[in-house]
């Protein structure tokens, strides 16, 4: 099964469905999209409280390569996670906690 699907692309407006995810990824993904591109509008919503599907809405002045935006947003998030992991492990080492 697909985990992500672009369900609408129209004149700089995009709707992306992400399956198997909830508010945690929705919030992170929208913030990452805002950091790596300059959307006019970016937000998400849960499709239904009983389903783990989020829809991300992004609007730009002009058409963009939304797949490239999503790749850059993913790379950004992975970098943040790697940085957090590194800092956390360094803090553990300083306190003698190991890994």
TrEMBL record:
Judged by the first EC level, this protein's enzyme class is transferase
Provide the DNA-directed RNA polymerase RBP11-like dimerisation domain boundaries.
15-86
Q: Identify the keywords attached in UniProt to this record, alphabetized.
A: Cytoplasm, DNA-directed RNA polymerase, Nucleotidyltransferase, Transcription, Transferase
Record bears the keyword Cell cycle: no
Where is this chain's protein located in or outside the cell?
A: Cytoplasm
- Describe the subunit structure: Part of the RNA polymerase complex.
Any idea what this protein is called? DNA-directed RNA polymerase subunit Rpo11
> What organism does this protein naturally occur in?
Aeropyrum pernix
């Amino acid at each position: 099964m697909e985990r992500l699907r672009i369900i609408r692309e129209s004149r700089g407006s995009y709707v992306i469905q992400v399956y198997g995810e909830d508010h945690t990824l929705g919030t992170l993904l929208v913030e990452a999209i805002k950091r790596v591109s300059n959307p006019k509008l970016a937000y998400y919503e849960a499709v239904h409280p009983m389903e783990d599907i989020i829809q991300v809405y992004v609007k730009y002045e002009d058409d963009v390569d939304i797949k490239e935006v999503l790749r850059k947003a993913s790379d950004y998030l992975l970098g943040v996670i790697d940085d957090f992991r590194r800092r956390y492990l360094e803090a553990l080492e300083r306190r003698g906690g190991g890994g």
